UniProtKB/TrEMBL annotation:
<dbReference type="Pfam" id="PF01425">
    <property type="entry name" value="Amidase"/>
</dbReference>
<dbReference type="InterPro" id="IPR020556">
    <property type="entry name" value="Amidase_CS"/>
</dbReference>
<dbReference type="GO" id="GO:0050567">
    <property type="term" value="F:glutaminyl-tRNA synthase (glutamine-hydrolyzing) activity"/>
</dbReference>
<dbReference type="InterPro" id="IPR000120">
    <property type="entry name" value="Amidase"/>
</dbReference>
<dbReference type="InterPro" id="IPR036928">
    <property type="entry name" value="AS_sf"/>
</dbReference>
<keyword id="KW-0436">Ligase</keyword>
<dbReference type="InterPro" id="IPR023631">
    <property type="entry name" value="Amidase_dom"/>
</dbReference>
<dbReference type="GO" id="GO:0050566">
    <property type="term" value="F:asparaginyl-tRNA synthase (glutamine-hydrolyzing) activity"/>
</dbReference>
<feature type="domain" description="Amidase">
    <location>
        <begin position="24"/>
        <end position="444"/>
    </location>
</feature>
<protein>
    <submittedName>
        <fullName>Amidase</fullName>
        <ecNumber>6.3.5.6</ecNumber>
        <ecNumber>6.3.5.7</ecNumber>
    </submittedName>
</protein>
Length: 463
């Protein structure tokens, strides 16, 4: 196995035992970047020389028995909303063409202190305001969308041009591209990972989280990212913890909620079949399946838009008025629409979210996790704007992709997307596990138990 193909856990073990040098690993990933970037366009900026210098320093530290932890010498990509001192943060927008970060974001500083090596800044749908990341191509089929808005991060991990990456998630922007590119994506509990130094889309819905090749890798990154930072007003004061799921795969006694409504409505037949097979596998591992009723489903879309649209417009108020022509048309229209939204709609959305959180908390008293599709369809061809469902319903692609992921943002609960197979076109299918606030450990335990039952992962090769 070539170094770029290693999972984070495998690479960390190889570095720890001296079987692999950080220089070998970073060089392998950078060679992969050079070969695939012309086809994939996952990166807005590649920091190759910086990465090589950091790899040499990491190798020297490893040789002197000064390993900083499991991320020491591991190549990573950071979504181009996340500040790194001295590196551009463009948000994949002409609005930020000349911007350079003056200081590290909290997450970049924590990853740097852990010894992780920055390969570059990954593309996002402009200012994270979209679900396709049109400039980046799917790692499994370059004629299809990457998903968004963290499309660059997901593609980099899937294609081996980063061992792990960070994304942001406001309505599904980590989990959607994770599902469409066959990698693992985690939206943590709201406030668990600080957002200081990360460009905002909607402050009350924004999350930062990892994209990795395995569930086990997620635990290693989350342990570094999680923790209080007073510079983020929403940051939670939680003690450090070890999120590693352990070797046991027995799920006896665990209650898995299977939605009887919403999550399996208007879902591609192959996606539904793959997710239901995965749920059956959880049952075979000892879990007890419990039917659940998802509350307040008729209000999900209106609440999501009622919160996100005015908050995004408020963030962009000055530049939207000073230089509207610098925004892409799809994003500019959404930002301008926010100026027309009455304050009462935003207030009603806040009230709806409060009620929704209360009802979800009640539902999660009866189950430990909920299992559902991450997205209702696999990656559509680039340029396709709508999906027509068997009942004749026509749905915009972005609305379809956000539909199943938005509830976790509205309620703040953690949600993990992991691969559970492929459709007949060979495109990845993702299952979503949702849990109680601060229940990441349970999600990772369940996801890891399922993952251990599957054959070895197949790396995407930028078809």
């Amino acid at each position: 196995m070539r170094p770029y193909e290693l999972s984070l856990t495998e690479a960390a073990d190889a570095i720890r035992t001296g079987r692999l040098s950080p220089v070998e690993l970073v060089d392998s990933v950078l060679d992969r970047v050079e070969r695939l970037e012309p086809r994939l366009n996952a990166y807005a900026t590649v920091t190759a020389e910086r990465a090589r210098r950091a790899a040499r320093a990491a190798a020297d530290d490893a040789a002197a028995d000064r390993l900083r932890g499991p991320l020491h010498g591991i190549p990573m990509g950071l979504k181009d909303l996340i500040d790194v001192a001295g590196v551009a943060t463009t948000a994949s927008s002409r609005v930020r063409a000349d911007h350079r970060a003056q200081a590290d974001s909290t997450v970049a500083a924590r990853l740097g202190a852990s010894g992780a090596v920055l390969v570059g800044k990954t593309h996002t749908h402009e200012f994270a305001y979209g679900l396709t990341t049109p400039q980046t191509r799917n790692a499994w089929d370059t004629g299809r969308v990457a998903g968004g808005s963290s499309g660059g991060s997901a593609v980099a991990v899937a294609a081996g041009t980063a061992t792990f990456a960070l994304g942001t998630d406001t309505g599904g922007s980590i989990r959607v591209p994770a599902a469409l590119n066959g990698v693992v994506g985690l939206k943590p509990t709201y406030g668990l990972v600080p957002r200081h130094g990360v460009t905002s889309l909607s402050w009350s819905l924004d999350h930062v989280g990892p994209l990795t090749r395995t569930v086990e890798d997620q635990a290693l990154v989350l342990a570094v990212l999680a923790g209080h930072d007073p510079r983020d007003p929403a940051s939670l004061a939680v003690p450090p913890r070890d999120y590693r799921p352990g070797p046991a795969g027995d799920l006896t006694g665990l209650r898995v909620g299977v939605p009887r409504n919403y999550y399996f409505e208007r879902v591609d037949a192959e996606v539904e079949a793959a997710v239901r097979r995965a749920v059956d596998r959880l049952e075979a591992l000892g879990a007890r399946l419990v039917e659940v009723e998802i509350p307040m489903t008729r209000y999900i879309q209106a609440t999501q838009w009622g919160l996100m649209v005015p908050e995004a417009t408020a963030y962009h108020e000055r530049t939207l008025r000073a230089a509207p022509e610098l925004y892409q048309a799809d994003v500019r229209i959404l930002l301008e629409a926010g100026e027309l939204m009455p304050a009462g709609d935003h207030l009603r959305a806040q009230r709806s979210r409060t009620l929704m959180r209360r009802e979800w908390a009640r539902m999660l008293e009866d189950v430990d996790v909920i299992a559902a599709p991450a997205v209702p369809a696999t990656a559509v061809p680039s340029g396709q704007e709508t999906i027509t469902w068997p009942d004749g319903t026509v749905e915009a692609v972005s609305d379809a992709y956000v539909r199943l992921s938005a509830p976790a943002n509205l309620t703040g609960v953690p949600s993990l997307s992991l691969p559970v197979g492929h459709d007949t076109a060979g495109l990845p299918i993702g299952m979503q596990l949702l849990g109680r606030p601060l229940g990441e450990g349970v999600l990772l335990r369940v996801g890891h138990a399922y993952e251990r039952t599957r054959p070895a992962r197949e790396p995407a090769d930028a078809a």
